[in-house]
Design brief:
Elements: E1 4-10, E2 14-21, E3 26-27, E4 32-35, H1 42-55, E5 62-66, E6 70-71, E7 74-75, H2 90-98, E8 102-106, H3 107-118, E9 127-133, E10 137-143, E11 146-148, H4 165-168, H5 170-175, H6 180-198, E12 202-206, H7 213-216, E13 225-228, H8 235-245
Parallel strand pairs: 1-5, 5-8, 9-12, 12-13
Antiparallel strand pairs: 1-2, 2-3, 2-4, 6-7, 9-10, 10-11
Bound molecules: beta-D-glucopyranose.
Residues 67-69, 77, 79-80, 106-108, 132, 134-136, 138, 152, 154-155, 165 line the site of beta-D-glucopyranose.
Length: 246
């Protein structure tokens, strides 16, 4: 079985791809990024994913994420992509568009699997929570390295904010021009709530904003250990590829 898989991470604003050595958790090429089509309908995103595979001249298996609940390859929700995704067999659609065997999983679950297997939470047992802060807030919950898929904790209601991602995602910091400390205080409120619910031993903070850890990390506080994602915003690509490997 091949170690090399094309990982593609479909986000609210960009679609990122790279070739991944899934055994070692290494990125093997230069990352390629294209804007997420608007509207992000299944057909438009499928065309962009096919374009990505063609850009890499890819002929092998493909692992792809979606910012949606994904069960058995079927998208079951659509918060930051077009609602036409709901009920779409994403795996069949993307396999047809690329002509390649394609596996589809939730974006935060993919990022989490990468961090737990090869990154910041490697070797950590107990309850681990990986959160991604970007257009939304994604979540991946693990117990002794085993994922509970599709937790969607960014869709919780907190202090009247429903969903809480519309108040505390990294997108909100940019749109509302919040200072790092002010935004971090919102993140802290989310962390406090999630610690109360799940008592994780470790929280990994990922998503695009994690590359600015030096700006907001010092303001984060929770009654548990908090670390930045080792793969930063590339965790979704790595985890997508790992999902295709099975
Ligand atoms: C979606 C999740 C996704 C998260 C991060 C949320 O709006 O519902 O499925 O993981 O955004 O992209």
């Amino acid at each position: 079985m091949t170690d090399r898989v094309l990982g593609i991470d479909v986000g609210g604003s960009g679609i990122k791809g790279n070739v991944v050595d899934v055994t070692r958790g290494r990125l093997l090429a230069d990352r390629h990024e294209i804007p997420t089509p608007r509207p992000a309908t299944p057909e438009q995103v499928a065309a962009a994913v096919a374009q990505m595979a063609a850009w890499f001249g890819w002929e092998g298996p493909v692992g792809c994420t979606l910012p949606a609940v994904v069960r058995g390859g079927v998208a079951c929700s659509a918060a930051n992509i077009d609602s036409a995704w709901i009920g779409t067999d994403a795996e069949a659609l993307l396999a047809a568009a690329t002509g390649l065997p394609t596996t589809v999983v939730n974006d935060a679950d993919a990022a989490g699997v990468a961090e737990v297997t090869h990154g910041a939470a490697r070797g950590r047992g107990g309850v681990v929570l990986v959160l991604t802060f970007g257009t939304g807030i994604g979540s991946a919950l693990f117990t002794d390295g085993v994922l509970v898929p599709n937790t969607e904790l960014g869709h919780l209601e907190l202090d009247g904010h429903a969903p809480v991602e519309d108040w505390a995602a990294a997108r909100v910091r940019e749109e509302r021009r919040l200072g790092w400390e002010e935004w971090a205080s919102r993140v802290n409120r989310v962390l406090e709530h999630l610690v109360r619910l799940f008592s994780p031993e470790l929280i990994v903070i990922g998503g695009g904003v994690s590359r600015r850890w030096d700006r907001f990390g010092p303001y984060l506080e929770a009654e548990t250990e908090i670390v930045p994602a080792a793969f930063g915003n590339q965790a979704g690509i790595v985890g997508a590829a790992m999902a295709a490997r099975g």
